């Protein structure tokens, strides 16, 4: 269930099936001359969409921005600070929690260490804030290594 495509009634009905949501994280950064700047985000979105085809799960609208230190000087790369990513993650998860969701998968197509550290830090803050929240922070590469 792609949240951005649902009506409010469809969202409410979805809550009767699941309390789980995947949030696709990516970045807007260079990937050579042959790939789009949204490559990391597109990967995470695709994983979410395919999962939603076989499981009852919500897929949140993607986060297109990430912490891109090593590629920051390349044309088209738009990096945000770790503080911004962490705050954005906490706010988005808290809003989804307020809507009734309890199980969160933060799936990042961008596997930069600092980026993933910010997502992990956000997850730890959220676990301390909401007693019944469950959260996983992972990259698509972690999933691929398990197949």
Task: Lay out the secondary structure.
Elements lengths: L7 H8 L4 E6 L13 H16 L3 E2 L22 H17 L4 E6 L4 H17 L4 E6 H5 L3
Parallel strand pairs: 1-2, 1-3, 3-4
Mean pLDDT: 93
Q: So what's the overall shape?
A: globular
What is the oligomeric state here?
Answer: single chain
Largest sheet: 4 strands, parallel
Low-confidence stretches: none
Spatial gap, N to C terminus: 24 Å
Describe this structure in words.
This protein has helices at residues 8-15, 39-54, 82-98, 113-129, 140-144, and strands at 20-25, 58-59, 103-108, 134-139. Helix 3 runs parallel beside helix 4 (113-129). Helix content is 43%, strand content 14%. The longest helix is centred in the middle third of the chain and has 17 residues, at 82-98. It is an alpha/beta fold and 147 residues long.
Structure summary:
The chain has five helices and four strands, in the order αβαβαβαβα. It is α/β, with parallel strands linked by helices.
Entry keywords:
4-stranded parallel β-sheet; 147 residues; alpha/beta
